[in-house]
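=== RUN LOG ===
request id: a7f3
mode: sequence -> structure
chains: 1
length: 207
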Amino acid sequence: MTSVGYYCFGFSGLTSITLSNNLTSLEKFCFYLCPLTSITIPNSVTSIGENCFCGCESLTSVSIPNSVTSLGELCFRSCKSLTSITLPSSVTSLGDACFSVCDKLTTITMLSAEPPSTGNNLFGDTPLQTVYVVSEDAKNIYQGVEPWSAYDIVVLPTGIDNAVVGTNAPSIAGYYDLSGKPLTGKPNFGPAIVRYTNGTSRKVMVK
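=== RESULT ===
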């Protein structure tokens, strides 16, 4: 199987799934109205079709790999529990109303220095406030392009601290996403919060 087809899991009671590493695409309406809570998309997938996750109101976390180039129209519409999302640098196209009516979406992280092409009403009816970008150059570009210019553009810090030499240096206690949800191990890329054994934490950009 190289794709998950049209309405393959649509309207089902599916709450979790492990996707094959052989997949190259998730077709339109694939997980339409599923009660999924989180999903990791394999790094073989290059496109996510229209309405793919539309109406997945319980979806709180989605990991999009650096192989995906496009998100179809209405792809994440009405994902009402999604608070943040990271789009890899490979994404060059976002369809109409892709993230519309995501009632809790307040932040999005763009790993591409160049804004992708976007359809209409990309973030319609969302409380989006902050767009994280990778550099000052990227910030200047995003600030000059709609719809990004309507939001607060913030440059992410880069790199994760190496262990400090010394017997009393704190070690890393765990990794968390930007909403504070624990991650399993170090993420491969994207923003994260690192917490140390001395109780301190910092926001970083993993590359």
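=== NOTES ===
Confidence is low (pLDDT under 50) at residues 160-167.
The CA atoms of residues 128 and 189 lie 22 Å apart.
=== END ===
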